[in-house]
Amino acid sequence: MSKEEKIILAAIDVFRDKGVEKTKVSDIVKSAGIAQGTFYLYFPSKLSVMPAIAAVMVEKIMLEVKNRFQDSASLEYQIEQIVDAVFYLTKEYRDVFALIYAGIAQTEHLKEWETIYAPFYEWMNNFLKQAQNVGNIRDSLNTERSTKLIIGLIESAAEQIYLYDDFDEENAALQKQELLDFLHHALGLRK
Amino acid sequence: MSKEEKIILAAIDVFRDKGVEKTKVSDIVKSAGIAQGTFYLYFPSKLSVMPAIAAVMVEKIMLEVKNRFQDSASLEYQIEQIVDAVFYLTKEYRDVFALIYAGIAQTEHLKEWETIYAPFYEWMNNFLKQAQNVGNIRDSLNTERSTKLIIGLIESAAEQIYLYDDFDEENAALQKQELLDFLHHALGLRK
Amino acid sequence: MSKEEKIILAAIDVFRDKGVEKTKVSDIVKSAGIAQGTFYLYFPSKLSVMPAIAAVMVEKIMLEVKNRFQDSASLEYQIEQIVDAVFYLTKEYRDVFALIYAGIAQTEHLKEWETIYAPFYEWMNNFLKQAQNVGNIRDSLNTERSTKLIIGLIESAAEQIYLYDDFDEENAALQKQELLDFLHHALGLRK
Amino acid sequence: MSKEEKIILAAIDVFRDKGVEKTKVSDIVKSAGIAQGTFYLYFPSKLSVMPAIAAVMVEKIMLEVKNRFQDSASLEYQIEQIVDAVFYLTKEYRDVFALIYAGIAQTEHLKEWETIYAPFYEWMNNFLKQAQNVGNIRDSLNTERSTKLIIGLIESAAEQIYLYDDFDEENAALQKQELLDFLHHALGLRK
DNA sequence: AATGAATGAGGGTTCATTCAT
DNA sequence: AATGAATGAACCCTCATTCAT
User: Which of A164, C72, C131, D105 has its CA 20 to 30 A from that of C36?
Assistant: First the structure.
């Protein structure tokens, strides 16, 4: 594993454990098993690791979505699989997402966020286009614009459940069902 | 204006300008026109101004929504007004929301985020219930659960437009139209 | 004694003891009996104390010159008194002058040096003018321009003796005599 | 050019540009076009380049003086040539001299300063002796002692002009003339 | 209540030097 | 001899907080 990777993974660990604010660079390097100065060969500051962490998380998202997705399944089920993937990741890495969000908001790296998310947007756009081509979602929907709405909707739903609400299995299931229903109508699903 | 108010307003200004982390208490007191020590007569620490700022923002949200909302308008137009209100707030105060979020995330009181939004959630829930009662939105929609989905959806759409995309008036109008359309279908609007 | 004075005097002490390079700000504040941060309320950096030290030294020069100077003495003897004053100070504070010279050369404070020296230049100029007016030094001498030459000459002579040469009382006396002779001819002394 | 020479010349450049304290070894090696580690094959530390730089400067001094000097010229003109040489050197390389001085002052080898000047002192002493032998300067002058006075005088005059005063062509010419006059009288020139 | 000079612990960052290749 | 990535001790400076006035 390269030193850069070591730093990123160690940063995720320590940020999760202590929070961004309270994390010292010395904590990160200790956890990464490298020298203090080595950190600065790869990142100019503590917060500049954030985009790299974000990129790792988007990789995880794509992996999860692709793993769960079944080409042969019904559109309805496929959407549920996407929702499940995002929900699972939010649940599992909620603190990482929270710190990325906070960390990115604090710095000037905001614009990078879009670039980092690009692969997920592209994948979703293709998915919607195909479904629209075969007539399974309403024609009036502009897939490119809606892609961002849908991803934003699913993620904010997940955040509601796993970040803000006191987590409760039954409530989570109901909230997910409401979301699927909401999406069903919004997309004008026909199948 | 009381010194406490001066501090809160000055803190909002400076936090927006420099970010929470880079803001010094000395910046706040300079902007507020008071002495360094006076700050500590009203707030025990820099971050403890956050809840007061949050309260100011809740007021702004409710004021904006209520100001724009017209009881007599069509449901479709009322929804557009809500979207406009959230868009406006995001555009104007997105950095403030981000810093409250970040401040809250740092102090581990993430759940409080919900409290801040509570009045807006409640108002939106009532709005949906009424519309549902008169049969203007689909019966299958659970207003309470959907409230959070809708607000999350509108906000994430607003962020896409005002933060990540390079802002472009025409594109913004189209994206807003797509969102209204998306909501129209999701709610099963009948009128 | 004000904190600023404490810092200057402590800085002189520590610089003399350890040299500029090896002196830490923490050494200065320890010697001054103040807190680390207090230093930065008065000086922006370690080297920025240099001009203040230089000013103290020029004060010492003026005091020494004025103390030794006798209005009633012969011109020849008066010049010897000035030389004695500069020699004494260079001898006593050779290390301080060395560090000022080095410290000032290293920073951007070079131009300030002239301002700091201004009182000495002015005093010397008046001295020469008066002697010229009563016909004791050659008329062709431009007092203002020569003032700087003379002070430079005396100081460099002193440095030669006390800083560079291995000090030797007899040699010092001879070198001083040569300087007085040199000045005698240069000024065209008539009395 | 050998790597050692490359390092010395690069060090002079960078030291002049940024000052000794602010110069990093990495700056020197970058400018020299060699690897970081290579530096330490030739010099044990950053400051240890100083003597090598000093040696280069001695060469420059002697070269300049000898180049300008004309055996056949009048004594008066020869002195002007010497002044011109020192003025030129001060103007062109004053910062290098300052940094050598500072470097030496820091390492407590202040006495070495004299060694650097030794060839110049010797040359000047011979020059004065010859002039005295043929009766062109006063007999009472001790050439050895005066050598140091004269060089110190010329240098301090040059520093006044090129460093402290805001440089001004006309003023510089007058100041130089005053210096020549001063020297003329001090040496008791007869021709 | 208000002030603002003083505090000093703390952490980010630098950079001379090393060493495996 | 040459490299340059890695090291980690060293130190500056910041800034939240205190407290005498």
Answer: D105
Residues C9 and C69 both lie in one domain: no
> What separation in angstroms does the CA of C160 have from each of C157, C171, D144?
5, 11, 13
Q: What is the pLDDT of residue A107?
A: 61
- Who among residues 38-57 of B has its Cβ near strand F, under 7 Å? 39-40, 44-46
CATH of the domain at D18: 1.10.10.60
- Per CB-CB distance under 8 Å, the chain C contacts of D113 are 163-164
For the CA of D95 and the C1' of E8, the distance in angstroms is 39
pLDDT, tens only, B99-115: 777 666 655 555 667 77
Look up tokens 């007869």; give the residue. Answer: D190
Q: What is the mean pLDDT of chain D?
A: 90
Residues B95 and B145 placed together within one structural domain of the fold:
yes
CB A138 within 8 A of CB B185: yes
Residues D30 and D80 in one domain: no
A32 shares its domain with A89: no
Band of residue D25 on the pLDDT scale cut at 50, 70, 90: very high
Asked whether residue A9 falls in the same domain as residue A63, the answer is: no
Output the CA–CA distances (angstroms, integers) from residue D13 to B157, C109, D4, D39, D173, in the order listed: 56, 21, 14, 16, 29
C-alpha R_g of chain C: 19
- Chain A 17-36 residues whose Cβ is under 7 Å from strand E: 23-26, 36
Quick one: C22 and C104 in the same domain? no
Same domain, B179 and B101: yes
Query: What is the CATH number for D113?
Result: 1.10.357.10
In contact, B134 and B140? CB cutoff 8 Å = no
Same domain, C110 and C166: yes
Number of domains making up chain C: 2
Tell me which residue of D186, B8, A177 sits closest to C138, measured CA to CA: D186
Nearest nucleotide to the CA of C40, by C1', is F13
